[in-house]
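task queued by scheduler; priority normal; single chain, no ligands, no partner chains; default sampling; output format set to C-alpha cells
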Amino acid sequence: MIKGIGTDIIEIERINKAVKRNSNFLNKIFTDKELEYFKRRNFKGETIAGGFAGKEAVAKAFGTGFRNFNIKDIEILRDDFGKPIVYINGKAEELLKAYGNYKIHISISHSKENAIAYALMEVD
C-alpha cells in the first residue's frame, strides 16, 4: 500500500551558492558515503542538488518532513548501475518501525538549472 509520495525541485545555483558560502554545508546535510559519491562525481552542483532534493522528497513521502529526525538519517547511495537507493537510519528508522515492512522508491533527475526528485513510500 502506498503510504506517501514526495517531490522536491531545487535550483542548482542555490546549492552551489550554499556550498561556497558555508564550508560546512555538505557535512551538515550528507553522510560520509554520500560525500564519497559526490567526490567521485567531482562535486558537480547538479549531483549535490539532486541528493538534496532526494532527501527532501523522501521526508515529504514520510508525511512529516524533517520533524523528529536529522536530514542525515536519510542516505541516498547508488547501486552498480547508478540507480539511487534510499537507506534510512537513526531516528527516521525508529519512526518507520511503526509501519513494519516498508520500501522507498526514488527517482532523481536534473536539467541545466534545476534538480528534481520524486519519492514513493510503500508499507505492508
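post-processing summary
- The helical segments are 12-21, 25-29, 32-40, 45-62, 90-96.
- Residues 45-62 form the longest helix (18 residues).
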